[in-house]
């Protein structure tokens, strides 16, 4: 009986992981490679899941930084409107 949950792909080697991590560390190239690995057909399933997780973490980080920026910008603007309290 055939097991449909298993894939016939080999596990990624240490060399493959080092290359993957090196490419993702390059700012623009890393983002593009994550998109290719996450949504392309030719990537290893493990690498595809890694890329999807990386993109989700990037999205969470961007939302967090925007939220922090808005909070500090609002506090700064409120401080400017308050005038001099001396």
Structure, explained:
- The protein is mainly alpha-helical.
- The chain has one domain (14-81).
- It contains 3 helices and no strands.
- Helix 1 crosses helix 2 (27-39).
- The longest helix has 37 residues, at 45-81.
- The radius of gyration is 21 Å and the shape is rod-shaped.
- 7% of the residues are buried.
- The mean pLDDT is 88.
Radius of gyration: 21 Å
H/E topology pattern: HHH
Classify the secondary structure makeup into a structural class. Answer: mainly alpha
Assembly state here? Answer: single chain
Q: How many beta-strand runs? A: 0
Strand residues, percent: under 5%
Query: Overall pLDDT, averaged?
Result: 88
Helix content: over 70%
Number of helical segments?
3
Q: Could you say which overall geometry the principal axes of the C-alpha atoms support?
A: rod-shaped
Concise account of the structure shown:
The protein is mainly alpha-helical. The protein is built from 3 helices and no strands.
